[in-house]
Design goal:
This protein has 103 residues and is mostly helical. It has one domain. The protein has helices spanning 3-17, 32-38, 43-56, 60-76, 84-101.
């Protein structure tokens, strides 16, 4: 499957997920209510995120962003659940973002 096909499928998953919701069309649009509903994390994922938050000194806002990115990575993998490897990848992206754009 090509990257384009994976992205199209992930967008379709998100369109179904947010169908009928006002102002929420993709994972990036989620606010606290939707994050709580659609970004459920298991114990292992929670531990991983807690460790990343402490080690990297991330804010609560960064936590929400990581959850949204992890949800998107799970969608690209066609996974209903966000797995620890999805969190790990999302944290890596956040770390890269901080390294390249931090003053």
């Amino acid at each position: 499957m090509t990257i384009r096909q994976r992205v199209v499928q992930a967008r379709q998953i998100q369109a179904r997920r947010f169908e009928g919701r006002k102002d929420v069309f993709s994972n990036a649009d989620m606010e606290a209510k939707e994050i709580k509903e659609f970004c459920q994390i298991d114990e292992k994922g929670a531990e991983l995120l807690k460790m990343a938050m402490n080690k990297l000194g991330l804010s609560a806002r960064a936590y929400d962003r990581i959850l949204k990115v992890a949800r998107t990575i799970a969608d690209l993998s066609q996974s209903e659940q966000i797995r620890p490897d999805h969190f790990g990848e999302a944290v890596q992206y956040r770390s890269l973002d901080r390294n390249f754009y931090a003053p």
